[in-house]
Write a structure and sequence with these properties.
With 141 residues, the protein is an alpha/beta fold. The chain has a single domain (35-139), classed as Glutaredoxin (3-Layer(aba) Sandwich). The protein has helices at residues 2-13, 30-33, 41-49, 65-79, 96-101, 128-139; strands at residues 35-37, 55-60, 86-91, 109-114, 117-123. It has a 5-stranded mixed sheet with strand order 1-3-2-4-5, sandwiched between helices. Helix 4 (65-79) links the parallel strand 2 and strand 3 (86-91). The longest helix has 15 residues, at 65-79. It is globular. The termini are far apart.
């Protein structure tokens, strides 16, 4: 309980940036369609927990330097899986409730979810070989 309160306090003090940089648009390539931003708890339930495909969940924050390195690297690796896995991006400043529910105590935190259950997890930056191994383990390749 004390950890949850500390996380809530920490998240309330974090500076909030814009949701997306001005002028940034999302492409329609296969890689981009497999990556999406979680809008709210209901969206998370529908698109992550109830997903028929495995989902990588990237808990990140706009102010997090390592997140800015890991995010694009992870998106690239998910795109290489050609639709076998999806990627959900969750901004912890906008979705504190999800961060607390999934016990995210540091960012970046990445969860591997299959059939609504967390089956693997890592915290921090990984290189492309480590990300590839993480994804292959998730999809069972």
């Amino acid at each position: 309980m004390a950890q949850r309160l500390a996380l809530r306090r920490l998240l309330s003090l974090a500076p909030r940036g814009p949701l997306a940089p001005p002028g940034r648009t999302f492409g329609t390539s296969v890689g981009r369609r497999s990556t999406f931003n979680v809008q709210d708890g209901s969206d998370f339930q529908d698109r992550v927990v109830n997903s028929p495909k495995p989902v990588v969940v990237d808990f990140h924050a706009q102010w997090c330097g390592p997140c800015k390195i890991l995010g694009p690297r992870l998106e690239k690796m998910v795109a290489k899986q050609e639709g076998k896995v999806l990627m959900a991006k969750v901004d912890i400043d906008d979705h504190t409730d999800l961060a607390i529910e999934y016990e995210v105590s540091a960012v970046p935190t990445v969860l591997a979810m299959k059939n609504g259950d967390v089956v693997d997890k890592f915290v921090g930056i990984k290189d492309e070989d480590q990300l590839e191994a993480f994804l292959k383990k998730l999809i069972g390749a």
